């Protein structure tokens, strides 16, 4: 079967190749588009003919796999998209940006295609600020020898300013000094100097005089002075004594230490020549020395002085404080050992006693109901001793007594209160507490009016400090 192609135009507008069915006829390939992928207003339009494969340039075609032959009957869709909405604003105010459009699925589901499409958009051109081109090569020097200048230029065309963009900042020209070969200067002789001393203090010798090729000195390739800069003649003095002269120095001896800095020495002899004919001994010393440095000696670490003690770890009561020292007096080096011992030290520190706020004990069990029938009350107590307040700590907040209603079986007749019972023991063994007294609603019937239990503060021996319960 001949391979079929479809124009890239269809691909660019978002068609899914898997949803396109090709039907081959005599000379025209008809494309049935999946109705779920097109707008409702094109559902019943005629199919679009596509030119035969041979009539379309290959650069505009995208190959797809051959589709099996199917019936020409148009199948109605089960899925359908609405029309595309308007394009959104461009994402860029200048230059190239993008914009999007959306559409809505008109059926319960649309498994093919997308609800969103996008395209590039070109807004107004952005201002383009001018940019300098690379500098040109340096021009020729302004002189052929000696010091001059040379220049170079650059253009404001990389890019050229446009769309209201700014011109290039700075200068389009630059210069620097240039130095070529110095101009040649030929040398000229100075006048002769006076005759010098005789070359010996006794016997036959010579003396000389000189002149300098510095009037002017030759430079930059100029020619030297012609002739000689020196002149000599013989001179004769009395016979000479022979003064002693030093021999060459011996080789250096061994260093005085095995590590670190030391010294080493060498010697020479007054025999080159030995003094004679009343000549003088050699001047100077026959011995010499210099420093010598071998591998560095190991330096063991040493502790610095202890720092001051730090702050106590607590603001009241007993805590600790510390101090430190550094292994830098000196620091260990060249293989020397670290400091022995610890770089930290601590000790206890005691500040003023901490205040202890009072805390309530657990509630006691509920007492008996104040009545034997009907509605009454029952009570319970707690102590400010868990812990007791000390060192200026605050008392317990709240009450040391609590009560709640209690209901017994209904009284058959109107009740009547018995006499108050004796006061029970104080709820505390020292300090302040609560004591209670009870009465009973006797007889059956309606409950007695009032409370069947009453409270009274009690104060016992001092627990180290007195505490009154309000």
Automatic annotation (TrEMBL):
<feature type="region of interest" description="Disordered">
    <location>
        <begin position="320"/>
        <end position="341"/>
    </location>
</feature>
<dbReference type="InterPro" id="IPR000884">
    <property type="entry name" value="TSP1_rpt"/>
</dbReference>
<dbReference type="InterPro" id="IPR036383">
    <property type="entry name" value="TSP1_rpt_sf"/>
</dbReference>
<keyword id="KW-0677">Repeat</keyword>
<feature type="region of interest" description="Disordered">
    <location>
        <begin position="378"/>
        <end position="398"/>
    </location>
</feature>
<feature type="region of interest" description="Disordered">
    <location>
        <begin position="264"/>
        <end position="286"/>
    </location>
</feature>
<keyword id="KW-1015">Disulfide bond</keyword>
<feature type="region of interest" description="Disordered">
    <location>
        <begin position="207"/>
        <end position="229"/>
    </location>
</feature>
<feature type="compositionally biased region" description="Low complexity">
    <location>
        <begin position="329"/>
        <end position="341"/>
    </location>
</feature>
<feature type="region of interest" description="Disordered">
    <location>
        <begin position="151"/>
        <end position="172"/>
    </location>
</feature>
<protein>
    <submittedName>
        <fullName>DgyrCDS7170</fullName>
    </submittedName>
</protein>
<dbReference type="InterPro" id="IPR052065">
    <property type="entry name" value="Compl_asym_regulator"/>
</dbReference>
<dbReference type="Pfam" id="PF00090">
    <property type="entry name" value="TSP_1"/>
</dbReference>
């Amino acid at each position: 079967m001949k391979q079929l192609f479809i124009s890239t135009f269809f691909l660019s507008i978002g068609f899914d190749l898997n949803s396109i069915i090709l039907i081959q006829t005599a000379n025209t390939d008809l494309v049935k588009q999946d109705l779920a992928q097109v707008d409702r207003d094109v559902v019943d339009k005629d199919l679009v003919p596509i030119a035969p494969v041979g009539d379309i340039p290959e650069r505009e075609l995208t190959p797809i796999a051959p589709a099996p032959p199917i019936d020409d009957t148009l199948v109605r869709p089960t899925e359908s998209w609405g029309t595309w909405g308007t394009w959104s604003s461009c994402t860029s105010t200048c230059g190239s940006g993008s914009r999007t459009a959306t559409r809505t699925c008109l059926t319960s589901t649309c498994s093919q295609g997308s609800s969103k499409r996008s395209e590039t958009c070109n807004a107004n051109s952005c201002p383009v600020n001018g940019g300098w081109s690379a500098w040109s090569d340096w021009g020729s020097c302004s002189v052929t020898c000696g010091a001059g200048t040379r220049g170079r230029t650059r253009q404001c065309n990389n890019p050229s300013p446009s769309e209201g963009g700014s011109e290039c900042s700075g200068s389009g020209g630059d210069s620097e000094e240039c130095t070529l070969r110095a101009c040649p200067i030929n040398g000229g002789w100075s006048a002769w100097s006076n005759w010098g001393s005789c070359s010996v203090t006794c016997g036959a010798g010579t003396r000389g005089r000189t002149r300098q090729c510095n009037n002017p000195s030759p430079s930059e390739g100029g020619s030297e002075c012609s002739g000689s800069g020196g002149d000599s003649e013989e001179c004769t003095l009395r016979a000479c004594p022979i003064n002693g002269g030093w021999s060459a120095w011996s080789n250096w001896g061994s260093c005085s230490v095995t590590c670190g800095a030391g010294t080493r020495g060498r010697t020479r002899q007054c025999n080159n020549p030995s003094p004679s004919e009343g000549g003088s001994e050699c001047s100077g010393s026959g011995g010499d020395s210099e420093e010598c440095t071998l591998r560095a000696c190991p330096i063991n670490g040493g502790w610095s002085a202890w720092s001051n003690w730090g702050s106590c770890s607590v603001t009241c009561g007993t805590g600790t404080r510390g101090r430190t020292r550094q292994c830098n007096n000196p620091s260990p080096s060249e293989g020397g050992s670290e400091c022995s011992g610890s770089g930290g030290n601590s000790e206890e520190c005691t500040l003023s006693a901490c205040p202890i706020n009072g805390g309530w004990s657990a509630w006691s069990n509920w007492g008996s109901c104040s009545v034997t029938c009907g509605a009454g009350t029952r009570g319970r107590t707690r102590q400010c001793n868990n812990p007791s307040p000390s060192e200026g700590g605050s008392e317990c907040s709240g009450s040391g007594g609590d009560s709640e209603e209690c209901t017994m079986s209904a009284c058959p007749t109107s009740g009547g209160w018995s006499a108050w019972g004796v006061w029970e023991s104080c709820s505390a063994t020292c300090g302040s507490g609560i004591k209670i007294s009870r009465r009973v609603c006797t007889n059956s019937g309606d409950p007695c009016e009032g409370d069947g239990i009453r409270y009274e503060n009690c104060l016992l021996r001092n627990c180290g400090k007195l505490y009154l319960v309000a």
